[in-house]
Amino acid sequence: MVKMVHVVKEVEVPEGVQVTVEGKKVIVEGPKGKLEKDFSHARDVIIRKEDDKIIVETFFANRRKKALVPAIASHINNMIIGVTKGFRYKLKIVYSHFPISVKIQDDKVLIENFLGERAPRAAKICGNVKVSVKGDDVIVEGINIEEVGQTAANIEHATKIQDFDRRVFMDGIYIYERGVIEE
Questions:
Q1: 93 beta partners
Q2: Of 38, 44, 76, 170, which is most buried, counting CB atoms within 10 Å of its CB?
Q3: From the CA atom positions of the chain, what is the Rg in Å?
Q4: pLDDT per residue over 79-119, tens digit each?
Q5: What is the spatial distance between Cα 133 and Cα 140, in angstroms, rounded to a whole number?
Q6: Of all residues in the chain, what percent carry a pLDDT higher than 70?
Q7: Per-residue pLDDT tens for 82-91?
Q8: What is the 3-state secondary structure (H, E, C) of the chain?
């Protein structure tokens, strides 16, 4: 097994964003809010701040450590994008016979009249995420990409069809666009 002596990845910190590194805990503050993430599971990875860069590095890396460095750098980069721009997922409400109605109630999304069912289906909204319904679109927005993505996945999963042929019964709510909020 060949070990790499030094694996390093740098993440640029743009103006208007403040990044604090306390051991393995990274706190990112920007115009849209504050995010913090703990990377204490990565024992042999060193995270440090140098000027306007965050440096993620490890020494004598095996396969696992070599994969961990760019993964942590991507997490930090997503945190920076989240506090500057934010993330948006768009989902489309698709039905053929029974019109689906979607309502937001507290920390749940209620999907009513799905395939004519009497009981509404519910999807959990994770963390600090804003969900809105505009016509046949459900828009999920927030600064934490993990919470936004999980909320969108929960909504899509709530309308998953089990006992019918998916080629015939295509009713449901499906993710059709995801990305950064450009405004």
A1: 173
A2: 76
A3: 20
A4: 999 999 999 999 999 999 899 999 999 999 999 999 999 99
A5: 9
A6: 99
A7: 999 999 999 9
A8: CCCEEEEEEEEECCCCCEEEEECCEEEEEECCEEEEEECCCCCCCEEEEECCEEEEEEEEECHHHHHHHHHHHHHHHHHHHHHHCCEEEEEEEECCCCCCEEEEECCEEEEECHHHCCCCEEEECCCCCEEEEECCEEEEEECCHHHHHHHHHHHHHHCCCCCCCCCCCCCEEEEEEEEECCC
Q: What are phi and psi of 76, to 5 degrees?
A: -65, -40
Structure tokens at 4: 């790499």
Give the domains, in start order, of the chain with CATH numbers.
Answer: 4-84 (3.90.930.12), 87-180 (3.90.930.12)
